Amino acid sequence: MFIILYRADSASCALLLLLLTLGWRASTGVPVPDLSTEKCEQCSLLFRSLLLNFTDLLNSSVCFGITSNKVVLKSKAQTLLTCTPTLSQVTSVMMSSLSHLSWQSECLRNIMKDLAHYDTVIQSYIKSSLRNPEEEVPPLNQTLGIIQSLRKNCAMMTNGEDDSAEEVTVPVWGSESFINRQDMCNMLRGFYVRTITINRAMGYISSGDHRK
């Protein structure tokens, strides 16, 4: 599978900061919390780390012996729809800056919804019946740590409230650890694919290609 990673530098992060700020104000009408260029670079690295982490996670003991290649996406977020603009949206000279910023704001909001969903899913799985907790939990905790760092440091929030919050349906795990692992791996593959989309979107936004 072809993966696009992006490298954040000060210039691209400065642009991303401007887009986030203007987009947030345009879509909500309220002030934006301070987000430094340093924090922007940190968030960019965290998104990249999350994608790389999934490569290791899918090859870890969590998915050991699981032959299914099924990809399951249960998040209610519309990340694919909002973060992959159509050709007409990208090339149309009639599209206003406000429309661009509205698209970016909606894309980022859905990315955070995805993170909230998988944060809940992974935490619930860790508490279920596991085949080998000593081997399964550490790599999942590592993934969970990256997700929670992204939610804490990179979400666009006002007055301390997380705008990405959504009602997440917690999976009902049974007593069969193999079936649980199989279901979990199917969802992890789905999030892996979604993370590729997220990294492409973040790279696109920070590059400023849509404004050329």
Automatic annotation (TrEMBL):
<dbReference type="GO" id="GO:0005615">
    <property type="term" value="C:extracellular space"/>
</dbReference>
<dbReference type="GO" id="GO:0005125">
    <property type="term" value="F:cytokine activity"/>
</dbReference>
<keyword id="KW-0732">Signal</keyword>
<keyword id="KW-0202">Cytokine</keyword>
<keyword id="KW-1015">Disulfide bond</keyword>
<dbReference type="InterPro" id="IPR009079">
    <property type="entry name" value="4_helix_cytokine-like_core"/>
</dbReference>
<dbReference type="GO" id="GO:0008083">
    <property type="term" value="F:growth factor activity"/>
</dbReference>
<keyword id="KW-0964">Secreted</keyword>
<comment type="similarity">
    <text>Belongs to the IL-6 superfamily.</text>
</comment>
<dbReference type="InterPro" id="IPR004281">
    <property type="entry name" value="IL-12_alpha"/>
</dbReference>
<keyword id="KW-0339">Growth factor</keyword>
<comment type="subunit">
    <text>Heterodimer with IL12B; disulfide-linked. The heterodimer is known as interleukin IL-12.</text>
</comment>
<dbReference type="Pfam" id="PF03039">
    <property type="entry name" value="IL12"/>
</dbReference>
<dbReference type="GO" id="GO:0005143">
    <property type="term" value="F:interleukin-12 receptor binding"/>
</dbReference>
<protein>
    <recommendedName>
        <fullName>Interleukin-12 subunit alpha</fullName>
    </recommendedName>
</protein>
<feature type="signal peptide">
    <location>
        <begin position="1"/>
        <end position="29"/>
    </location>
</feature>
<dbReference type="GO" id="GO:0006955">
    <property type="term" value="P:immune response"/>
</dbReference>
